[in-house]
Every structure is written in C-alpha cells, then in structure tokens.
Amino acid sequence: MYLDIGQLKAFYRGTMLGRAAQRVLRERVADLWPMLHGMTVVGFGFATPVLGPLIASNRRVIALMPGQQGAMQWPRGPVNRTVLCEETDWPLPTGFVDRLIVMHGLENAENPPALLDEIWRVLAPGGKALFIVPNRLGMWSRRDITPFGSGRPYSLGQLESQLIRHRFEPGKHRAALFVPPSQRKFWLRLLPTGERLGQKISSHTAGGVLMVEASKKVFAPTKKGLPEAVRRPLEVFEGIARPRPKPASGRMPQLKIDETESQF
C-alpha cells in the first residue's frame, strides 16, 4: 500500500531526519552511478529526493508517481517534471529509459511482478535500474516514523531472486542509513560517522535501506537466422528442380462438374 504524497513530502522536506536521509541516499546513488551524463533518467514511486542532482547533467529527467500515491509538482519552479501514471502502465515508449530509480515503489506495489515487467519494458538494451527498498534485517523497516517502515521489506537474497525471475541481472549493491531512525539530535549528529563505519562493516546486513543495481537482460534469438534459411531450397521451385512425372495414361485427369451446381 502506497503512502500518501503528503506524508512523503512532509518527511523529506519537513523533518531533520528526512533531510539527513536524503543526503545519505544521494551520496550512495553518486557512488553507484558516478558518471551520468546526457541520459534519459526516470524515477518511479517517490524518487525525487535523489533525482535532483541528476537534472543538470542529463538530457531528460522524469519523475513517475503512481495514482495510488498521488503526485506533486517537482522541482520547484516553472518547469514540472512529474507525471501521474498507473503502476503497471507507464506513458513511456519501449526501450526509452537509460537509467531508472525505483524508490518507495517496489515495496508498496500492489502487483510487484507486473511492475517489474513494466520496468523491463521501458529500459533500453543495456539500461540499468536502481532499486532502493527497506532492508528486512535493518532497523528502519521496523518503525513507521519513516516511509521505509511501510510496505514489504526485502533481504538482499530475496530482492536479487525476484529480479532474476523477471529477466534482470543483479549487479552492484549498497546499504545505507546505519544509525537508528530517530529525530534525536544525538543520532542525527552521529549519522555521517555511522555511515562511514557501516560501509566498512557491511554492504547489506546492517543498513536500514538496500540499494541494488540491476541490468536489463536481453536474450539472443533462438530461431535459425537468415543465412541458414537462404541455404535451404525454396519449396516454390521444387517442381523446376525435380519435375514430376505425368500420369500413367498420358492424359490430364478430367474434372467432374455437377450440372446442378453449375446453374446460376
């Protein structure tokens, strides 16, 4: 079940914990994708907290927000990059997207398999998606004071298995948000230090959030190609290559016409 757009906006813009989490997630995205330039980048769910830094260097940046969640104008200013859409029916052409970020999307989806199929459809060959989900083993999925306490949390193995079933190839992964989800100033001050230590200790077990990169896997066609087909003789010329003998009587068989059927 999706959270309301007002709740998401209030957390990331209206709380110190939300703004701190946004900074951490942006840093991890930059670690995974350090050189994004001139691409079509799309976010689904509520990915705007990490999409902002990608606007300046890329050709096109779009934020898709599902109807069950609602949408808001983003970014601030005269140009709106937000599109309200159906969860499994996006207004994008097949193979249109170079990079896609799913945040507050997969864990809340009403039909995760269909959502993954739609993600696979819109990705270009060689395109990559980044899934940001609550970590089943972390602290953030166990408290509902943040958006990561909503929906279905994942372990790394569960998420990678689901991606493989839907024709993705899992790649790099990171964990983030290692300190407890608390508004207390002590934990907020400890957040940068906790992130540095957490990255050295564990890549997926201790963090509150998992970030898994996945590539679109395109299989080679299994049918025999054109060269093999051309080497085979065409059936339409079989009579020329191997003439068929005439009937034994030497005459062509006569067609029997029913006089009753020949009347107009």
Structure description:
The chain has a single domain (5-216), classed as Vaccinia Virus protein VP39 (Rossmann fold, 3-Layer(aba) Sandwich), CATH 3.40.50.150. It is globular. The chain has 264 residues and is an alpha/beta fold. α1 packs across α2 (16-32) and α2 runs parallel beside α6 (185-201). It has helices at 5-14, 16-32, 48-51, 112-122, 156-165, 185-201, 226-231, 238-241, and strands at 40-45, 60-66, 82-85, 97-103, 123-134, 168-176, 209-216. Helices cover 30% and strands 20% of the residues. Strands 3-2-1-4-5-7-6 form a seven-stranded mixed beta sheet, sandwiched between helices.
Features:
alpha/beta; 264 residues; 7 strands; 20% strand; Rossmann fold; 30% helix; seven-stranded mixed β-sheet
Whole-number mean pLDDT: 86
- Summarize the amount of helix as a percent range: 25-40%
Largest sheet: 7 strands, mixed
CATH homologous superfamily descriptor: Vaccinia Virus protein VP39
Which secondary-structure class do the elements indicate? alpha/beta
Cα(first) to Cα(last) distance is: 70 Å
Number of separate helices: 8
